Amino acid sequence: xxxxxxxxxxxxxxxxxxxxxxxxxxxxxxxxxxxxTNLRRGNPKPPQQLRHxxxxxxxxxxxxxxxxxxxxxxIVAGVTDxxxxxxATHRECWQITRGDYEYALTIGNRGLIHxxxxxxxxxxxSNPYCGTGNIIGFPDIDKPIYCDMAYAGSTPELNIELPxxxxxxxxxFSKSHGLVGERxxxxxxxxxxxxxxxxQAVGMWNYTSVDIAIACLEKFxxxxxxxxxxxxxxxxxxxxxxxxxxxxxxATTQDPEFDCRKRAPDLPARINLSHCWRYI
Length: 280
Known about the structure:
This protein is α/β, with parallel strands linked by helices. It has nine helices and ten strands. It has helices at 6-15, 25-31, 45-61, 78-89, 103-107, 174-177, 196-201, 207-219, 224-240; strands at residues 72-76, 94-97, 111-114, 122-126, 145-149, 166-172, 185-189, 243-244, 250-253, 269-272. It has a seven-stranded mixed beta sheet. The chain has a three-stranded antiparallel beta sheet with strand order 8-9-10, covered by helices on one side. β8 and β9 form a beta hairpin. The mean pLDDT is 93.
C-alpha cells in the first residue's frame, strides 16, 4: 500500500516529464562487485567480451524478437547515443510522429514531425511506444524504419515482429534493468553502421559496461524483472486510478488533472510510476 499522502505524490507525478525504471536492488547486487576494466587497446579480451555479449543478447531476446536479419551489432552509451549516431550520419530527411521520443529533433535539422507516418521519409519510432509505454503495431510504409526499442525488456511479455523494412533496432539496459547511469545500449543493423563500425574497429567503447551487461543477462531471463514487479505496478495503479502500461514502471490516465503529462493531444497522460516505489 502507498502512504496516504497522495497530494504530495500527485504533485510529483505531474511535475516529471520523464520516465525511467526504478532502481532494481537485485540488479545492483549483481553488478556491485564488477571491477573497472582498464586494458590497453589491442588486448583481445574486450572484443571477445563484446562478441559474447552480442550472442548472449541474441539468445535471450530470440523468443520475443527475431534479430537474425540484423547481421551487425554495436555497443553504445544507451539508445540516446544510437539516435545521436543516426542523426549524425543519415543524409536524408527523416520523421518521427507526434508523441514519440523527440530527442532526435533537438540535435539535427533534417527531422520532421507528423501526426501520422508519411511514406516519403524514413521513420524513427519507438516500440514499445514512448508515448504510452505500450507495445504497438508498425505502420505500413515503404521507407526504412529505425526502431527505438529502449523499453524492450521492461514488459512482462514481449512479442515484436520487426517488419522487413526495419533497418536498425536500438536496445537499452536503462529501462530493462534500471541502469540509467551506466549508459549501456546495443545497436543491431542490417548494413555496417557508417560511424559505429569505425569506432568499434578501434576498440572505442566502455569495456566495463560490457561486463555489466553480460552479468545482467547471465543472471536474469529477458522478461524476468518486469514479471516480478508487475504486481507492484498493478497495486499502485489500482490505488491511484491509473491504467497499467505494458512497461512495468509506466501507467496512463485520462484524468484531466494529469493533462500536462500528455505527449500528444490524442494520447492519454503518461505517468512515471518509479516515483511511487519510495512510498510503498
